[in-house]
């Protein structure tokens, strides 16, 4: 059944960091909506609150970050009203966040094939062979050949590691992918490939920060 509403719809979001010597407002009255299949790009200087906004929309913000009275709607549901079960589903199957410097989050002692398969096997009822096949397809969508599945992160360039992380973010077919500075290590050609990956998935919405 098709669900209605935007993915997400943010109304007047403010996020403060509470510190001993006062409060810093990192996100100040931000409103935005993204529709199905739409990519929204936001550019801003260092320290302007991009990562803070990304974390809040993914519902991953933690103290000292505090959200001041606001609604963040996902398919018309307020994400801050989610119970544990709904939150798990939201975080894994509906939204994924590519962290800033995400490529440093890859485990250095596990092959990238295994890392992609682990995500798929932990959340989807598929066999190991099916997960491997899916991992190979995902790598291909970010322009990396399947014969690299058995390689370790250090055997890839920075841009390639970044693309591996994007492949992992797409592994569970999320409805929304939030990419916090995804392109700093990507050259123009790769950036175009990534844009076309996002564009080819017509039910996928994206929010990208630069
Ligand atoms: N844990 C924290 N505690 C207190 N203040 C914080 C914390 N994290 C971020 N800030 C402040 O919030 C503001 C926004 O930070 P944020 O990381 O969202 O910026 P950004 O736009 O992502 O910057 P960059 O482009 O450098 O990644 C900054 O002034 C920063 O000092
Ligand atoms: Mg940032």
Give the end-to-end Cα distance, rounded to a whole number of Å: 34 Å
Q: Which ligands occur here?
A: adenosine-5'-triphosphate, magnesium ion
Number of DSSP E strands: 9
CATH fold topology: Rossmann fold
Helix fraction by DSSP (H/I, runs of at least 4): 25-40%
> What's the number of helices?
6
CATH class: Alpha Beta
Low-confidence stretches: none
Biggest sheet, open or closed, and with what strands and sense? 5 strands, antiparallel
Strand content: 15-25%
The succession of helices and strands, N to C, reads EEEHEEEHEHHHEHE
Q: How many separate domains?
A: 1
Radius of gyration: 17 Å
- The name of the CATH architecture is 3-Layer(aba) Sandwich
Output mean pLDDT: 86
| Coarse structural class | alpha/beta
Set out the fold topology.
Layout: E1 9-19, E2 22-33, E3 39-42, H1 50-57, E4 65-68, E5 71-74, E6 77-78, H2 84-94, E7 95-98, H3 112-123, H4 128-141, H5 158-170, E8 176-180, H6 188-200, E9 205-209
Parallel strand pairs: 3-9, 7-8, 8-9
Antiparallel strand pairs: 1-2, 1-4, 1-5, 5-6
Helix pairs in contact: 3-4, 4-5
This protein binds adenosine-5'-triphosphate and magnesium ion.
